[in-house]
Amino acid sequence: MSSLKTLFREEVKVFNVGIPSFADDLKRQNVPVAHVEWRPPAGGNKRVIELLDRIKLWQAACQSPAKS
Amino acid sequence: MAVKIDVQAANKEAVSRIQSAVPVIKGIGIAKDIVPGMKKNLILHAGPPITWARMSGPMRGAVMGALIYEGFAKNAAEAEKVAASSEIEFAPWHEHNGVGPMAGVATASMPVWIVENKTHGNRAYCTLNEGLGKVLRFGAYSEEVITRLNWMRDVLGPVLRETLEIKGEINLKTLIAQALQMGDEVHNRNRAGTSLLFRELAPALLDSKAPAADKKRVLEFINGNDHFFLNLSMPAAKAILQSAEWIEGSTILTVMCRNGTDFGIRVAGLKDRWFTGPAQQVKGLLFPGFSEADCNPDIGDSAITETCGLGGFSMAAAPAIVKFVGGAAGDALNYTQKMYEITETESTTFQIPSLDFRGSPTGINLLRVCETGILPQINTGIAHKQPAIGQVGAGLVNPPMKCFEDALEAYVEAYVP
Amino acid sequence: MTIRHVIRKETYFDSVTLMQITNEVKKLQGVENAVVGMGTDFNIDSLKRLGLYSDAFAGITPADLMMCVQAGSDAAADAALAAAEKLLTSRKKAAGTGAAFVPPTQEAAAKQLPDANVVVISVPGAWAAREAEIALRAGRHVMLFSDNVTVEEELKLKTLGVEKDLLVMGPDCGTALINGVPLAFSNAVRKGDIGLVAASGTGLQEVTSLIHTMGYGITQAIGVGGRDLSEKIGGKMTLMAAHALGEDPATKVIVLISKPPAAAVLAPLYAELKKIRKPIVVYFIGADPEAIRKEGFTPAHNLQEAAQKACELSGGKPVQPPMAEAEAAAKAKGLALPGRYLRGLYSGGTLCDEAQRLLQPVLGELYSNTPVKGCKALASVHKSEKHTIVDLGDDEFTRGRAHPMIDPTLRQERIGIETADPDVGLVAFDVVLGYGSHMDMAGEMVAAIEKARKASGRKPVFAACICGTADDPQNMQKQKRTLEEAGVLVFPSNVALVTFVKQALSGKGA
């Protein structure tokens, strides 16, 4: 976990999500980079994303201590 | 149903059972004696539930052949009438603790392998593999087919049954693990598995009381069929995955199968439910003389191997497969790599040499399939769409996304407040 | 005439790659037209408009790839499709062969690089906010290059960023340099003690490049996106970044570049900035410098001056611009323009705005597709009127295309049109170097200029500014030479270019 307090002293390490040439440029400069070969989540299906996000929220609620 | 469930924990439990399962060959029996719910007029088939009216060519042919074999009909024309009548019932093998390759048709008097998961005690069944060419599972119903089925019931089954009584259990988990390191992926390539099985059986078989000619014929039969082991790798995978049925809240897949018309999946946390979509066209290489127009859609329960991290998921173990389907050896690695994105973990037993002995991708997670849009990769044989012609090629295919979308809807409805 | 349609289901490529492939296919023998793109509503509409749509594409989704080729013969169509397939496969192979598996999600990428601290996001706008949230929740800073993110999404993201002390640079942020690392479209700039916060991409590129050219250097260049200082967003990231630079021991001077903030945001912004005990150069584009000076900050009248003032505060001594005003003006001496009008063709939005702002008082009637105060809107963005300066990076031009800093095609076509116009005397344009930009934009512009001169027989004056540094990957000297050899007058900053233009148009050169 980074923060703005510490960022200026950290080594910049990048995820590149989208246009591949941005990652190529960083690789050329020996900047640690992981290119994410992104595609629309759930094949672009908004309904599936909605369902998945509902499950994520439900699970987050299940993990937190019981509220009255 | 507003239940507090830890999905991650449920999936961990499912995967743990899968990892610890130990499938072994217990013996051979006649279907009506040992398959739960089996009866004289019941025809078990591959894939999710289907009616006679919707069956594809190979399935119809197999049903007709089975009816002739069981004595319900004397010829094809009669068989068709009987099949369409209320006299005959159909059910998926998966609903009777078993699996069948291609049409996967099984009836009461057929001999079946008995595979038991030693860790949990559950059992799975499968017929013995008939061989290549004009066989029942590709929809053939000629006299040659019936004659062979009779021989399998009267000679092959009993000889192997006695052999197994002499030999004792054969551990399928270790055989599959070894085959995987010998160039098999135990779905489309079974040569090593068949060879290893031959070694396991031969000495005990020689000790059996059957006539020498029969023993020789049995060994020749096994030796002449590179896919003989498929009918063991499939119930082994079934027995492994059965142990995860049914775990509340789990999103791990326990079944992927096709009946030539529909593709069906089952999920550990959604007891007894089927989620189906249209079976897809397989893309690959066709034998000379055949074209895409000749191909039947995806068919068979053999996708149970992929469900278990074998077959297409272990393609990196069998680069020969990918050449057959028109790719380069490097593609095999990539297909397997992709599958790690939709599975929970790596197998502790099934290792892939070309990936530095990394465990095969294990525990297909419905949520990860939906999130990434990456569909499970299956490689499979292609049947001619007309019955009785046989295999016309092999290639790659995926389930339709619809199965996973429907399962996701059902899961949210069942669990998420 | 043959039209072929192919669908590849669930096959995704980014739009830039697809544009490049479409261009290659269109160049092939016998091909009249080609579209290789994802099955988005936009692309489907394009097909319909071009008369290339087919029912074969009914049911296609944005996750499917479609290829449509219109050719003079079956053979040409087949060849074109085969070429397209080959290009697509070679791209995929380059992306991930064998051992180097390319992750499809941030979660998968975390297995390869668990301590990544910056996530650069350039996916289509509809999906960008979700990716940004995933990054923030994983404790990583975000550079949001994507545009078409809603202001509600931006607010949600920046609120989350402030809560977690994580930067959200964007949306529509094209430029940032963090710890000397150029991200997206940025230049190679030496390290120094000037820290920048900017709500503008090419503005930040111009200022950081000029700081380098003038012999100074930077600590950080933080983009905050064009809308950060709007009322709704309230300058959340501007303040976060400014305070961080205020506390950063390596930063001695701070530069803030933006359009004038919303009225409700201005006073609180000044109040916060005053807490920072370091000199701050504040350049609010088009704002009254006196008002800024009264608040105790150092104002600038343009991007070049912002760089100049920052360097002076850093070095404590006067700093000269790379080309003096007199020298720039002198280049117009004796120049006879064959037509009375100016056409400015910019790839950088802020540079386009600056040119408009500085020229409008002199030219009077000035048109643009993104008119600043006092300028007029073009009736059609594709057709210049009288004096016109266009921003070819604006949405209207970039829908379904790559940005003009990557893809020169649209600007090349426009050069052809402007050159052929008998009323045009002077064509000005920018060449933006740096990472992310085309490797030989000067060459592309020169090719278009020579083609246009030949086709029209006309010879308007061409003038360009180069935005970049000598350390950029394009070799700035070579770019300059390429332009000069083609008879293009070259200037080291937008301000120098504009000075020349002013002089050239005012009194026929004297």
Protein architecture, described:
The complex is a heterotrimer of chains A (68), B (417) and C (510). With 68 residues, chain A is α+β, with helices and mostly antiparallel strands. Chain A has one domain (4-63). Chain A is built from 3 helices and 2 strands; from the N terminus they run αβαβα. Chain A has a two-stranded parallel ribbon with strand order 1-2. In chain A, strand 1 (14-17), helix 2 (20-28) and strand 2 (33-36) form a beta-alpha-beta unit. Chain A is flat and about 40 Å long. By secondary structure, chain B is an alpha+beta fold. Chain B folds into 2 domains: 23-234, Enterococcus faecalis V583 fold, CATH 3.90.1710; 246-415, v583 domain like (v583 fold, Alpha-Beta Complex). Chain B has helices spanning 7-20, 31-34, 57-70, 76-84, 143-167, 172-180, 191-207, 212-223, 230-242, 304-307, 319-324, 329-339, 366-372, 401-415; strands spanning 23-30, 42-45, 89-92, 111-117, 123-127, 170-171, 253-259, 262-267, 275-278, 283-286, 299-300, 343-352, 358-364, 378-383, 391-397. In chain B, helix 3 crosses helix 4 (76-84), helix 3 packs across helix 5 (143-167) and helix 13 (366-372) packs across helix 14 (401-415). The longest helix of chain B has 25 residues, at 143-167. Chain C folds into 3 domains: 2-95, Gyrase A, domain 2, CATH 3.30.1360; 106-315, Succinyl-CoA synthetase domains (Rossmann fold, 3-Layer(aba) Sandwich); 325-506, Succinyl-CoA synthetase domains (Rossmann fold), CATH 3.40.50. Chain C contains 18 helices and 20 strands. Chain C has helices at residues 15-26, 41-49, 74-95, 106-112, 125-137, 151-164, 201-213, 236-247, 263-274, 289-294, 303-315, 325-330, 349-363, 395-398, 409-420, 441-456, 476-485, 494-506, and strands at 2-8, 31-38, 65-71, 118-121, 141-144, 168-169, 175-178, 181-184, 191-198, 218-223, 253-258, 280-284, 298-299, 341-346, 367-368, 376-377, 388-391, 424-432, 461-467, 489-491. Chain C has a 5-stranded parallel sheet with strand order 10-9-11-12-13, with helices on both faces. A 5-stranded parallel sheet of chain C has the order 17-14-18-19-20, sandwiched between helices. The longest helix of chain C has 22 residues, at 74-95. Chains in contact: A-B, A-C, B-C. Chains A and C meet through helix 1, strand 1, helix 2 and strand 2 of A and helix 4, strand 4, helix 5, strand 8 and helix 8 of C.
